[in-house]
Specification:
This protein is of the alpha/beta class and 369 residues long. The chain has twelve helices and 13 strands. Helix 2 packs antiparallel against helix 8, helix 3 crosses helix 8 and helix 9 packs parallel to helix 12. The two termini are 23 Å apart. Bound molecules: pyridoxal-5'-phosphate.
């Protein structure tokens, strides 16, 4: 038995005829930039997130960068970010010339801890980026309360949580403007780099629409500075195929996660991400924390179970950022996840008997160790 941590070929095999068909149509029509498929994707994705607008862009990083830009984030500003996330969340802040201010994650749900945000707010703070980590959701009510009190913008990074809900409200619909990656390995991904912005704010939408395309909405008219961060029509076409399956794929992830949660719960030596009753996670990753990770990974590997680590090095210790943040006492949980975190196999198409096998192997390991 060999079980990969992620396997895109199962979902892609199942829909390959539809994908080939889209490629044929786009090639026949030669409509590559800002075409009908992109417009369709944007309206489908906005409806999915229950927002007024969605805007396809070239990556998750660009989605975050543009969202911050149109809010006016600039040099000298500070933006609150979770200590534990993918580094793109922080770098998008740096790309605006602003400073990412890390806040430690909650010891149980592993998303930004709202009770620690206020002490990091200064006169320079302009926005908070809650990251919906591993498919779960941040405590959005508490974050909204802090943001309202201090008049800060919220930019959700829901790259890992397309379809998740908090109190039955969709991920990607909470912030003033929100950003997600559609990288191939996310819950919904293109066949290459892609990203999306969502918002209910018409002004922000129009600014983002311009910024994505050289500051231009009308051909040959450039009203403001911009970049080229458009989502390819071809990638949008592939995403239109995949959007039909996203809810089913998310349900499969939930089923797998429920088996893991039930079977691994009795093992006192490991920790799992707590998901409160008002949250529906879409389980982008299923991460457990274990002591002596190297030994554990070697054991799993020997049993044909492949794993991954999200992420092995705290961002504040990365060469790019370590000069800014010295005190590691603030980030004990972040340190712990980087040191002990193991992402188990989870993907649509992973068979229930494979999940049971993985749980048995893990149970046996902890009986012996
Ligand atoms: C994947 C990811 C990104 C970056 O997305 P790209 O499309 O690779 O630029 C940003 N934030 C989070 C939380 C992610 O998981």
């Amino acid at each position: 038995m060999l079980i990969p941590q992620n396997n895109l070929s199962i979902i892609h095999d199942a829909i390959k005829d539809e994908l080939y068909e889209k490629f044929k149509v786009i090639l026949a029509e030669n409509e590559f930039i800002l075409g009908k498929e992109l417009a369709q994707f944007e309206s489908t994705f906005a409806a999915f997130c229950n927002t007024k607008y969605a805007l396809g862009v070239s990556s998750g990083y660009d989605a975050l960068f543009i969202a911050l830009k149109v809010l006016g984030i600039k040099a000298g500003d500070e933006v609150i970010v979770p200590a534990h996330t993918f580094i793109a969340t922080w770098m998008a802040v740096s790309a605006c010339g602003a400073t990412p201010i890390p806040v430690e994650i909650h010891p149980q749900n592993w998303t930004i801890d709202p009770s620690l945000i206020e002490e990091k707010i200064t006169s320079k703070t302009k926005a908070i980026i809650p990251v919906q980590l591993f498919g779960s959701m941040c405590a959005m009510s508490e974050i909204e309360a802090v943001a309202n009190k201090h008049k800060l913008f919220i930019v959700e990074d829901f790259s890992q949580a397309q379809g998740a809900t908090y109190e039955n409200i969709m991920a990607g619909s909470f912030g003033n403007i929100n950003a997600a990656s559609l990288y191939p390995g996310k819950n919904i991904g293109a066949l290459g780099d892609a990203g999306v912005i969502t918002t209910n704010d018409k002004t922000l939408y129009n600014l983002a629409l311009q910024f994505r395309n050289y500051g231009s909405i009308q051909k040959n008219m450039h009203s403001s500075f911009g970049v080229n961060a458009r989502l390819d029509n071809l990638q949008a076409a592939f995403l239109n195929v995949k959007m039909q399956y996203l809810s089913d794929w998310n349900k499969q992830r939930m089923t797998i996660a429920n088996v893991y949660r039930e079977k691994l719960k009795p093992i006192s030596q490991l920790q799992m991400q707590e998901v409160e009753d008002n949250i529906q996670s879409v389980f982008h990753q299923f991460v457990i924390l274990v002591n002596n990770r190297d030994q554990f990974l070697e054991y799993l590997n020997g049993k044909g179970i492949q794993t991954n680590i999200h992420y092995p090095i705290p961002i504040y210790k990365q060469p790019m950022y370590r000069h800014l943040y010295e005190s590691s006492n603030d980030f004990m949980k972040t340190n712990e996840i980087c040191e002990k975190g193991v992402s188990l196999p989870i993907f649509p198409g992973l068979k229930e008997e494979e999940v049971h096998y993985i749980c048995e192997v893990i149970t046996q390991y902890f009986e012996a160790n």
